[in-house]
Specification:
The complex is a heterodimer. Chain A is of the alpha/beta class. Helix content of chain A is 42%, strand content 22%. Chain B has 2 domains: 47-256, P-loop containing nucleotide triphosphate hydrolases (Rossmann fold), CATH 3.40.50.300; 262-322. Chain B has a 7-stranded parallel sheet with strand order 4-2-5-1-6-7-8, sandwiched between helices. The two termini of chain B are 29 Å apart. The relative contact order of chain B is 0.13. Chains A and B meet through helix 1, strand 2 and helix 2 of A and helix 2, strand 3, strand 4, helix 9 and helix 10 of B. Strand 2 of chain A pairs parallel with strand 3 (95-97) of chain B.
Chain lengths: 139, 325
């Protein structure tokens, strides 16, 4: 018998870290990814970095997507990537989106964030980039 | 994935490495004939956990209640694993796994492991992936394995073959006494929970459930009379009564020998699903190749069906040892 084609979907964690309560954007993305055939683990609002990392490990997600609006994106990215490294999960790519100044993109990328999606990014572009990231990840 | 990578995941997971366990569960989600040996191995280590199935209509508060149950069980010193099943969209085949959202307070607890899986379009509510994951949690030594079903409604009775204890959650306003008398998911509980008991009609619903439970019209028979508990997951009411009922049911299972019978039933069900998966995959590939000519397709499908059946029976035979614990 031939090996059946793998049925595994791209699994993405969508979370917001900290006290910001604006989750409309995160929900829109979650829904759009679902419609594009992704498995979306939605942890919702007010997560800590540790909660996000634990969830990513237990769910074995392919990508972590963080949505930030209140200006803490650089701090959050540093903490998150540091924690992923501590637990040996630095191979899970992190992407960010939300109200992020264009000037901060370079800093975020130098910290290790793989993609930054600013407001107005077409959903189709987000989907295409996430698919690229997932295919590059060693399974 | 290579066999030695999988062995590596298993060994690390057995030493408590959660990352390795997470990866192993992904391998199990994609279980194929080539990886069926993992289930064999896990089954040689499992059989001790208390498998608790939680079912009920969507919106009855399953996830919130589970979060409360986890807290109570952790308080008693048990380690807890959760398999949470969410539906796959029939349109995009994508899904939103949102049950975790209500249990995230336990995410960083080292004695808790929560994994979400999708139905992947399988009937009956429980996929092979879910069953294999239950086997893994059991093998890794989790004391309690909670299975949260997708909550599709009255036909979702697969959980019956899998769980040691079935908790059926209903809520005020979910229907009258005729609903309570109907066949289906309401019939299969060992414990009935009337959640949202802070709502006005709760005592009416509670009395209906008590009535049918005491009359022996629901439940799985044997020497067990279903217990009915009132809870409010958001307010945290009735949780102690519920965990006491869980303990009581487990004692009954062990004393009556029913626990062992249910383990046999769980594994038999898993083997059936492995065989079915192999068959379906074989058939699908034939249908895709041959769909231009219906008569040819039917002919080659017949040959393929026989071949698939042979393979399924072989794999079934190989793991049939699992049935006799």
């Amino acid at each position: 018998m031939k090996n059946p084609p793998t049925t595994r979907k791209i699994k993405v964690l969508v979370a917001k870290i900290g006290l910001d309560g604006h989750d409309r954007g995160a929900k829109v993305i979650a829904r759009a990814l679902r419609d594009a055939g992704f498995e979306v683990v939605y942890t919702g609002l007010r997560q800590t970095v540790d909660q996000v990392v634990s969830a990513a490990i237990q769910e074995d997600v392919d990508i972590i997507g963080i949505n930030q609006h209140e200006g803490s994106h650089i701090y959050v990215a540093k903490k998150l990537i540091e924690r992923l490294r501590e637990v040996g999960a630095e191979d899970i790519p992190v992407v960010m989106g939300g109200s992020i100044p264009i000037l901060d993109i370079e800093s975020l990328k130098s910290i290790g964030v793989k993609e930054v999606f600013l407001p107005g990014t077409p959903i189709s572009e987000i989907i295409a980039k996430l698919k690229d990231l997932a295919s590059m990840k060693v399974k | 994935m290579k066999r030695e990578d999988i062995v590596n995941f298993i060994e690390r997971a057995e030493r408590g490495d959660k990352r390795a366990l997470g990866r192993l569960l992904s391998v199990l989600e994609d279980l194929s004939l080539e990886t069926a040996w993992i289930v064999e191995y896990l089954a040689s280590k499992s059989g001790r956990a208390h498998i608790i199935g939680i079912t009920g209509i969507p919106g009855s508060g399953k996830s919130t209640l589970i979060s409360r149950i986890i807290k109570a069980l952790r308080g008693k010193g048990y380690s807890v694993a959760v398999v949470s099943i969410d539906p796959t969209s029939p349109y995009s085949s994508g899904s939103i796994l949102g049950d975790r959202l209500r249990m995230q307070e336990h995410a960083t607890d080292p004695g808790v492991f929560i994994r979400s899986v999708t139905t992947k379009g399988l009937f009956g509510g429980l996929s092979l992936a879910a069953l294999a994951i239950i086997e893994a949690f059991d093998a890794m030594g989790y004391d309690k394995v909670i299975v949260e079903t997708v909550g599709v409604g009255q036909g979702e009775t697969d959980i019956m073959h899998v769980a040691d204890t079935i908790v059926v959650i209903t809520m005020p306003g979910a229907g009258d006494d005729i609903q309570a008398l109907k066949a289906g998911v309401l019939e299969i509980g060992d414990i009935y929970v009337v959640n949202k008991s802070d709502k006005p009609e709760a005592s009416k619903t509670y009395e209906y459930m008590l009535f049918v439970a005491e009359k022996g019209e629901v439940g799985r028979g044997g020497g067990w009379n279903p217990i009915v508990v009132k809870t409010s997951a958001t307010l945290g009411l009735g949780i102690r009564e519920l965990t006491e009922a869980l303990d009581k049911h487990l004692s009954y299972l062990i004393e009556s020998g029913e626990k062992e019978k249910r383990l046999v039933s769980r594994r038999a069900h898993m083997i059936k699903l492995i065989a079915l998966k192999i068959l379906l995959e074989s058939l699908n590939s034939v249908v895709e190749i041959e769909s231009s000519n219906i008569m040819e397709a039917v002919k080659s499908m017949k040959g393929f069906y026989e071949e698939a059946l042979r393979i399924a029976m072989l794999s079934g035979k190989r793991i049939s040892d699992l049935i006799s614990i």
